[in-house]
Write a structure and sequence with these properties.
Strand order of the largest sheet: 2-3-4-11-5-6-7
CATH architecture of the domain at 65-176 and 230-289: 2-Layer Sandwich
Largest sheet: 7 strands, mixed
Number of strands: 12
Number of helices: 10
Distance between the termini: 10 Å
Order of helices and strands: EHHHEEHEHEEEHEEEHEHHEH
Low-confidence stretches: none
Structural class: alpha+beta
Amino acid sequence: MNFTCLELHKGVKKIFESAGFNPGDSQIIADVLLAAEKRGIPSHGIIRIKDYLGLLSKGRLNPTPLISIVYETPSTFVIDGDSGAGMVVAKFAMDKAIEKARTSYTAWVAVRNSNHFGISGYYSMMAAANDMIGISMTNANPLVAPPFSTDRLLGTNPIAVAVPAGEEPDFVADFATTPIARGKLELYEKMNQKVADMLVQDKYGKPSNDPAILKDGGAILPLGGDPEHGSHKGFCMSAIVDIFSAVFSGAGFGPFVPPQLAYLTPVKDAPGIGLGHFFGAMRIDAFQPADEFKSYMDCWIKTFRKGKTIEGIDHLIIPGDPEREKEQLSEKNGLTVNEKIMDELFESLNKMGITSPF
C-alpha cells in the first residue's frame, strides 16, 4: 500500500491515541516509527505496531507511564520507564542527557523498565542537532546465540553514534551487533525469501537459511557469523551493549530481557526490571571550539569520500548517507508498506476494537 509520509504519520498517531496513549506520546511513537520507514529501515517501522499492541493487550506495555529519575549525579541519571513505550521513555532520557550536558559538557543516562524503542539512531541524532555527539544503545529480545552456543542469551543490541559536521551531513552510524535484525527476518519471511549464510542457525546450532527459524527454537548469530569470521567480536560488542543498558540501570540483562513479542512469556522471577537503554551526550566544544570541530569533521568525511573505489562505485559511503538519501526520496515520493504487514496490522486493530485510520 502506498502513502504519503504525512498520511502514514497521521494514521500511526491515531492508532496509538485510540489505544489509550495521550496525543503527545502518540506523536513521539509515530515520529520514531516513520523515521525508520523514511530512512529505509522498515524492520523497525510499521511492522512493529502489531507487537506493541500485543504487549499492550497483555498488560506489558503501559500507555500512561510515570517516568521517573531514580538516581542522579552531576553528570548521570538512572531512569525508570514504568513499562512505557520505548520511544517515549528513550526521548525523555535523551532530552535529559542533552539538558544535563549543556552544563556538565557530558552526560550519561541508563534506563530500566522500558520497551522496544525503534531505531537507535533517532536518539543519537537528537544530540547531534544540539552540537553534541550522541550515543544510543539498547538491549533486546534474547534471540542471539553466542559462539558455540545453542542458547539464545543476547539480543540484536544496536549501537548508534551521531557526530555533528559543518558543510557535510552529520556522521550517523546506526547498526545492530548481529548481521540481521529480527524484524528483517520477518520481512524476508513475508516475501517468501531465504536468508544468506551465517545469519541464523537452527535449535541444534546448525546453519540455516530459514527466516522463520526463530519460531522453531533457532537463533540469530552475532556479527561475523562463526568464530572463523570473527563472531567472537560481535559477541563482545553485544555483551558491552547489554552491560551498559542493563547492569548500569538494573534492567533485565541477556536471557532475562522481557520479550517484546506478546506470544512469548517473560522469564519468571528474572533479575532486573524490564528492558534497558543507555544514552550519552557530549558537547563537541568540550574538546575544541565547535566550529573547529565541525570543520575538522568535514575534513575527515571528505577524505574518506575521496578514497579509491572498486569498479562501478563512484565514491565511498559514509555512515548515514544511505539513510539520509532514502529519507529525502521518501519525503518526495511517499512510502510503500508491504501488504502482508498492513493485513496483520488491520487484524491487530480489529482484535483491539480500533477502527483503522487507513
